Structure formats: structure tokens, C-alpha cells
Fold:
Amino acid sequence: MGTPSELELVFRAALALLVVVALAVVTLRFGLPWLVRRPLAGRPRRLEVEERCSLDRQHHLYLVRWDEERLLVATSPDRVTLLARGGGGATPQPEAGGTP
Structure:
């Protein structure tokens, strides 16, 4: 049992680095999406932004799901407006008093 040569030490270090990088890639590829999708504390999420559409730098449209209801919301720097409200699978209906 002699001392390992420099080439053998470099080979061991490269192999260890390869194993660590492979574990990091697998963890980020499969573990991170699972953690993001996982409900908080065993409860299903009641509020979720399904889609977002930027109209310009300061104006956006959001399709928000709240329980089984969908809301179409417009935002600007000075206000938030509910444009339409609809059921889970239905097409959003115009809000009463809104413009057609």
C-alpha cells in the first residue's frame, strides 16, 4: 500500500466532482419542481395565478383562480379592476355594471 500518484489523486478528485455535479443536476431537475408544486402544509392551494399578460410596462391582465372561481383582473400603477368573473370550467362572464 504505497502513496497514490498525482495522476491517481487528480482522477479521484475529478470523479468526486462529477458525482457531486450529477447529484446537483438530478436534485434541481426533479426535486425543485416537486417542492414548488407541493401544497403548503398539506392543504391545497386556494389562490393561484393561472395566466399573466403584460399590456405594457405598467399594465397587466391576470387570470386568477380562487377556489373554483376564475377572475379576470386588470392592474395599473394606481388601481386594480375586476373585469370578469366565471366558474371553474366556464367562460368568464362580464361583471355587473362593467362595459360590455
